[in-house]
Amino acid sequence: MNKEVLQQELNYKTARSSGSGGQNVNKVETKVILSFNINESKGLTEDEKQTISKNIATRLSNEGVLVLQCDEDRSQLRNKKIVTDRFFTILDNAVIKPKQRKPTKVPKAVIKKRLKNKKLNSEKKQMRKRPDF
């Protein structure tokens, strides 16, 4: 994954933020919308594209475009930085392949303990029975 190339492939749009803020909200476009087409990216290998598409399939549009937006701050530059950082953390987490789980054997001591408890339970219940004359 080449982050410099990915940085150049990002498309930013601005829009007016919602919510309270008075005239600032009504006049200034502080909301930043980031869009990134995974399938047409030159900064990702084919294997990375498939892995990312599989891992974040719910966040992608039908065309394979990841769209993120941020209107947390009153500054457009800070919102742009926040949404870019969020984009790279999402990609980094999507590329990570989980470790393969190795099934472990049941220890012999555990098996012995279980059989011993079964035997004790059996003897206890045998003692509760009526004696056979």
Task: Give the structure's gist in a few sentences.
The chain has 133 residues and is an alpha+beta fold. It has helices spanning 3-9, 23-27, 46-55, 76-95, 108-128; strands spanning 11-15, 31-37, 65-70.
What would your notes on this structure say?
With about 130 residues, this protein is an alpha+beta fold. It has a domain of about 90 residues: Double Stranded RNA Binding Domain, CATH 3.30.160. The chain is built from five helices and three strands; from the N terminus they run H-E-H-E-H-E-H-H. The chain has a three-stranded antiparallel sheet with strand order 1-2-3, with helices on one face. The longest helix is centred in the C-terminal third of the chain and has 21 residues.
SSE map:
Elements: H1 3-9, E1 11-15, H2 23-27, E2 31-37, H3 46-55, E3 65-70, H4 76-95, H5 108-128
Antiparallel strand pairs: 1-2, 2-3
Notable features of this structure?
alpha+beta; hydrolase activity; Pep_chain_release_fac_I_sf; 133 residues; Pep_chain_release_fac_I; Aminoacyl-tRNA hydrolase
